[in-house]
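Continuing from the previous page of notes. For each protein in this section, the sequence appears first, followed by its structure tokens. Read the first protein now.
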Amino acid sequence: METTGVAFPSNVSEALSTHLRVNAQITVIIDAGRWQWLRIPLENLIIGQLSGAHTVLINKTDLVSPEEAEAVEKDAREINGNAIYYRVSGIAEIGANILQAMLGGES
């Protein structure tokens, strides 16, 4: 777990694998409400975080329209089309299938 939001998860994963022989499952959380505002000024950071992700949670989907959530997901998929994407919100419980995917299981 990397909680500052400024690391490149694939580097953390590689270090864990190389030095501790631990395979890491990378989950990245996107703030749908601030995506457009942050996308350009933090482009390199966003690309670095998303590119190695296995699972991407698009959070705060209750604060944007369905069309905005779709645009965020489409943009993120252009960076990493291999990740599994879920739209989530703090007002709804995260389903067991999402938690299983975050742990590396199929969903």
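Done with the first. The second protein uses the same format. Note its length before scrolling.
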Amino acid sequence: MAEREVDDSQGRTARSVPLWKMLPGLLRDPLGQLVALADSAEGEILRLNLGTIRPYLVTEPAHVQHILRDNEANYTRGGQSMLWRPVRRFTGDGILSDGPKWRASRARMQPHFTAKRIDLLVDSMSRAISDAVDEFDEPARTGRWLDAGTELGRVVCRAISSVFFADRVSLADQLRIVAAQGTIVTALRARLLLPFVPDAVPVPGDRALRRAIGVVDDIMLPLVRAEIANPRDGDDLLAALARARDEDGRPLDERQVRDDVVASFATATETTYAVLTWLWPILDAHPEIAERLYAELDEVVGTDRVISRDQLSALTYTRSVVEELLRMYPAGWLLPRTALADDVIGGTRIRAGSLVVVSSYITQRLARFWDRPDTFDPERFRGDQSRRSHRYAYFPFGGGPHQCLGMYLFNLEAPLVVATVLSRYRFRLREPGMPPRQLAAALRPGRPVVMALTPLRERRPA
């Protein structure tokens, strides 16, 4: 499978997998090929010979922990990283960067994403989600087909807008942001696949990327400028950042506020609707799981329009379904890093300046850590079975100092969305079967998931 180079330096040299051995599988099913390589490596670090780049593929949970937590200072998101550089064309320097700017942004925003604060927002999020789901009534009555990704984006944006902007972004602008983010995720695909191409050299998708970023800025910059000019006393993220000061006590400039708000909003919304878009084909393919989910919703939610925090706590199977979705289809599936200095991981030497690839998608499908890894089974996350053999066998939100700030927000919001929709409607797909996986900045279905909804019954008012 692989050829080992000879090296007399400290640590053994990683086994090199030549391109000709990988190419057929990469062309047919790139993620499947990478999982197969990781399984066959049995915990070893591999070096993938992809021609102009030769990244290290790190999949063993203990090795992942070393990169993301134990020695994270040596593994930067800058340098030749094949994802972060193009992503920052959209999000700017801040929460998705490295170094002093990242630390300052993280410190500013951390208080807005604590478990205590997010718990206080459950009721307002639930009402916002309920109001957004109300708009399914008309297409459900008429049998109109809906794009699940687009509609979930609308629902999620409504909920997040209430938390981040105190509902100061109109519904029309929320929909424009959802559409722009979809374009950005897809447009970044070429940059992701061609990491060695300098930013100054145009690649397919660059023009669409610039237009989509312009749409977001047209919405967000006026909002930021107005907030800075007339700051409110609100505790939403926009108001707090507009009042914030940098480490020297100076007000943040409008670009920094914009970058922090856009990065937070983009990651909070993208993760939720990208992951939940996979739910519908999964439930269609597994009717026994769907029936168990429906039974829990009937028992806990019943005909209530707005789900309470007590009801949310009781939706244990619903949460297990969401966790299994995160295992099989993590939105942030790729976490590339650049090694600043030589290192040794599990006896294998990592050369300074090299690209190191960590992937939750791959590690979370390793057969030696997961029984029947390609089978959707929410029981993995129930009772004693939920304990993993290693903390980093499951890391859909990354880990260490860079672990996603919005993790707790997702863990409350996603079950609320699932429960609100499926306690009111049943669905049918226009095209049954699992969609292909689209390799882009976020893991999304490779074709639209189109569905029609059927109302369950008349709902009593909240």
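What the second structure shows: The two ends are 61 Å apart (CA to CA). The chain has 20 helices and 15 strands. We return to this in next week's lecture.
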